[in-house]
Specification:
Layout (H helix, E strand, L loop, with lengths): L1 H74 L4 H23 L9 H28 L2 H7 L3 H11 L10 H22 L18 H6 L1 H31 L3 H23 L13 H28 L1 H5 L2 H15 L6 H22 L19 E5 L5 E6 L21
Antiparallel strand pairs: 1-2
Helix pairs in contact: 1-10, 1-12, 2-3, 2-9, 2-10, 3-4, 3-8, 3-9, 4-12, 5-6, 5-8, 6-13
Length: about 425
């Protein structure tokens, strides 16, 4: 009996020790799981925080790629008139399904006034802006045109002042920043035109024969003509933004409006191209080469993917965050242009580009502190590059949040009064 009692006591003790050890192992495993879960959560948070930065970097690289392949195709004989037609046709085909699906119940009734405005928008953006920009880039260089187009916010700011859409208080630090930014961007553009200087050598450009930039720099007339066309493209683009903000108040269907602009712009561009290329019908023929790639790339990447990325990042971080990455496109384009197109980068272009970027950030800072427009949640986002904007009425009060788009298929996040981005 004593032996049995002793065995039972030993068995209970060993069971107790076993339960204690199992409990300790479970608590340790649970603690390790919690630590792992916390670490994983921190890792996913870091990844999510990095997504907007990575998306904007890749987006600017995508825009730079469009600049390079477009100029390469133009310099190989592709007609810019035909390029504009095909690119907008692809953009229309890509964006139409999203407009039909997402805005099937909110599309307002079309009126004569709205249609006239759409025709004006199509004339300003797909017809004038794109053709002028491509001609300017072809006569100068991809890097030069990309740098010069950073004057867009300054041009729109001046137009907004003329049209009394922008209010400036000279005693306000933010208004002073906008004025200083405008002056700096104009000064940088003038410097890029008037002063070229020696060619800046990079490790990958030593010993190579430069084309494009160096050649056109020697031809002052062609260079000046290309510069004037690029500036004129910025003026047309600025007018497009101003008219579009007015159109969206009457037709608040962003995707549908963009498809209509691209579609009508395709028709207008076709009419212009038929007249301009009437003696060269072969210009309409594109094979499986860089010309076809340029059309598809511009229509899908710069009119499809870019819109979605811009819309998501704009809602998360705001338009100023998106704008801050624009100079990266200029840098990537300059580097890629010097490697692929063998374009020369002159000292004057570098100094002028730096001044323009400084002025751009002054203007961005001044606009970001205005408190006029804030980023709003957008109900429909899918496939195009449309800037996120607040439309204001003539009395300066907010009339709603809108996503603005251009027929160019490029993305620009901007204030309804003064856009603060660039890109074609």
């Amino acid at each position: 009996s004593a032996v049995v009692k002793s065995n039972r006591s030993g068995s209970s003790y060993h069971s107790y020790i076993k339960r204690v050890r199992i409990g300790a192992w479970r608590r340790k495993a649970l603690a390790n799981f919690q630590v792992g879960k916390t670490t994983m959560g921190m890792g996913w948070k870091a990844v999510n925080d990095a997504k907007p930065y990575l998306a904007m970097v890749l987006l600017q690289v995508g825009f730079a790629g469009m600049y390079i392949i477009a100029v390469a195709s133009l310099k190989r004989g592709m007609s810019h008139f035909v390029l504009v037609v095909y690119r907008n046709l692809v953009a229309t085909a890509v964006m139409a399904p999203f407009a039909l699906y997402f805005e099937r119940g909110v599309r307002p009734k079309m009126t004569i006034t709205i249609f006239i405005k759409i025709m004006g928008l199509a004339l300003l953006e797909p017809v004038l802006d794109q053709n002028l920009y491509y001609m300017g880039a072809n006569l100068t260089s991809a890097g030069f045109a990309t740098a010069l187009v950073n004057i867009l916010p300054a041009v729109t700011f001046v137009l907004a002042l003329i049209l009394r859409m922008e209010k400036v208080r000279l005693r306000s630090l933010h208004s002073q920043a906008k004025i200083a930014g405008t002056v700096l961007t104009v000064a940088g553009a003038v410097l890029m035109v008037l002063y070229h200087g020696p060619v800046v050598q990079f490790p990958w450009t030593k010993g190579q024969h430069h084309a494009g930039g160096a050649a056109t720099a020697a031809d002052g007339a062609a260079w000046l003509k290309g510069t004037i066309m690029t500036v004129a493209a910025c003026v047309a683009w600025s007018c497009f933004f101003i008219l579009q903000s007015s159109t969206l108040r009457d037709y608040p269907a962003e995707l549908s409006l963009t498809v209509l602009i691209c579609g009508v712009g395709s028709v207008m561009s076709t009419a212009v191209a038929v007249v301009a290329e009437r003696a060269n019908t072969h210009a309409w023929v594109i094979g499986f080469d860089t010309r076809l790639f340029t059309v598809v790339y511009g229509g899908i990447v710069c009119s499809g993917v870019a819109y979605y990325v811009q819309g998501v990042v704009s809602r998360q971080r705001g338009p100023v965050f998106v704008t801050a990455f624009n100079p990266l496109c200029m840098i990537v384009t300059a580097v890629m242009g010097s490697i692929i197109l063998k374009e020369a980068i002159t000292l004057g272009s570098v100094i002028g580009a730096v001044i323009i970027v400084v002025g751009l950030y002054f203007l961005i800072w001044g606009k970001s502190k205005d408190g006029i427009s804030q980023v709003s949640d957008v109900s429909v986002k899918g496939a195009g590059e449309l800037p996120l904007t607040t439309a204001t009425n003539g009395h300066g009060s907010s009339s709603g949040k809108h996503v603005l788009g251009n027929g160019n298929g490029d993305v620009h996040v901007l204030d309804v009064e003064t856009p603060t981005t660039n890109g074609h």
